[in-house]
Amino acid sequence: MDKFQISGGRRLEGEVRASGAKNAALPILAAGLLTDRPLCLRNVPELHDIRTMLKLLGRMGVSATEAGGGEVRMDAGALTEAVAPYELVKTMRASILVLGPLLARHGEARVSLPGGCAIGARPVNLHMSGLEAMGASVSIEGGYIHATAGRLRGARIVQDTVTVTGTENLMMAATLAKGRTVIENAAREPEVVDLAACLAAMGAKVSGAGTDTIIVEGRERLDGCEHRVLPDRIETGTFLVAGAITRGRVRVTGAEPAHLDAVIAKLREAGARVAVGPDWIEVDMPRRPDAVDIRTAPHPGFPTDMQAQFAALNAVADGVGTIVETIFENRFMHMLELRRLGADVRIEGHTAVVHGVPRLSGAPVMATDLRASASLVLAGLVAEGTTDVQRIYHIDRGYEHIEAKLLGLGADIRRAPGPAT
Ligand code: UD1
Fold first, then answer.
1. Which protein residues touch ligand 1 with a CB less than 6 Å away?
2. How many CB atoms lie under 10 A from the CB of residue 421?
3. Minimum-distance ligand 1 atom for the alpha carbon of 124
């Protein structure tokens, strides 16, 4: 298993381009199951999770090819098998996104039930109950969700928790249902809006995406489309923190500043100068950052996927910052690894209290999940000496060419074979 070797202490400076958003590309690829017509998708990032989704679609008889330069052409005209097997779902929970589209188009789906994961229980009960409200029969058999339906029918669904992939699954299913579906307490994440834009390009009638009420008027069939995936706001935010933590100046281009309001506000509170253009954001951190308090919340609140990166920033900041995680119950694994680098962190339930220290010192650390690994890389960029971040397959799931991008900004980072586990 590969690891990153990082020699800390370099100030990052320069420009880096944001990739397409993993969390938008995944549901959009699943949306291709809703039609027998071809889709041409652009700005799809080259990531392990995307390859997993393409493999999953391939197993179902969907032709999906990477045409290079971030272009993916897919055609689900010859859908053969509506099954998402355990061996793929266990490596990527977002495989659950095929449930709604398969059921809506094919009348049946078998999707392995995702288990718990490194950051918490992450149930999918709201995906299942929403489909039931639309007339599906849903049962659990042999570890699989088995859903069947004639044509789904529109329904009013009130989600008791804001769920991103749950909203996406139901929105996709509703596009082929008979009648109107109203999803209340819907997720407002930009990735939901991007999926809605792609569905609209396919001929679906969707309104309200980006608000907490999404309305879908079902159609008999959808068409193919061309769609460009929006920029990845979490990758963008991660590079901005990389600039701030190294007291450098980093401009992320090809970005969507409006999607990062909460992150930009916290960077400014930490003492960074942040300049924003139509499609770029630049962070300039002239001094040691101030500690900031973070409370994660559904969009437009502070994203849980940026919490770990700010934990790294607080670890070297001046003062004490508290981080309250409200979305997932077990998302502090990186804190224990940050301690190995010398961070002063105390965890009390859902709150981590981080006392900033003047310096971290390099050590071997282990990545436990995608965003945790980003936080360890960030800490490694400022730690004195060498930090080995092991199990970086987690980071390859969600950050496109991260070491090349960091090298371009002046970091000293290299990929090396890690210990076999
Ligand atoms: C998505 C993102 C992930 C991000 C998360 C929160 C993708 C592929 N992944 O994950 O990067 O961290 O949103 O912004 O887009 N819940 C239930 N029942 C359900 C579904 C969810 O109780 O049926 C709970 C979860 O346990 C969690 C909360 O709702 O506490 C939010 O989870 P959810 O928004 O569903 O996360 P994902 O969509 O899996």
1. 23, 26, 93-94, 121-127, 161, 163-166, 191, 304-305, 327-328
2. 7
3. 23
Statement: residue 419 has pLDDT above 90? no
Catalytic member of 40, 117, 198, 225: 117
> HEC string of the chain?
CEEEEEECCCCCEEEEECCECHHHHHHHHHHHHHCCCEEEEECCCCCHHHHHHHHHHHHCCCEEEEEECCEEEEECCCCCCCEECHHHHCCCHHHHHHHHHHHHHHCEEEEECCCCECCECCCCHHHHHHHHHCCCEEEEECCEEEEECCCCECCEEECCCCCHHHHHHHHHHHCCCECEEEEECCCCCHHHHHHHHHHHHCCCEEECECECEEEEECCCCCCCEEEECCECHHHHHHHHHHHHHCCCEEEEECCCHHHHHHHHHHHHHCCCEEEECCCEEEEECCCCCECCCEEECCCCCECHHHHHHHHHHHHCCECEEEEECCCCCCCCHHHHHHHHCCCEEEEECCEEEEECCCCCECCEEECCCHHHHHHHHHHHHHCECEEEEECCHHHHHHCCCHHHHHHHCCCEEEEEECCCC
Please say if the pLDDT value at position 296 is more than 70: yes
Confidence of residue 68 (pLDDT cuts 50, 70, 90): confident
Respond yes or no on whether the N-terminal peptide bond of residue 45 is cis (omega within 30° of 0): no
pLDDT tens per residue across span 234-279: 999 999 999 999 999 999 999 999 999 999 999 999 999 999 999 9
Give pTM, 2 decimals.
Answer: 0.97
Tell me which amino acid residue 341 is.
L
Supply the residue whose CA is at minimum distance from atom 20 of ligand 1: 124
Tokens of 230: 């929006």
Q: Confirm if 309 and 338 have CB atoms less than 8 A apart.
A: no
Residues 6+ apart with CB under 8 A from 332: 325, 347, 352
Query: Could you tell me the distance, in angstroms and rounded to a whole number, from the CA of residue 328 to the centre of ligand 1?
Result: 8
Rounded-to-integer distance, Cα 76 and Cα 146, Å: 21
pLDDT value at 116 more than 90: no
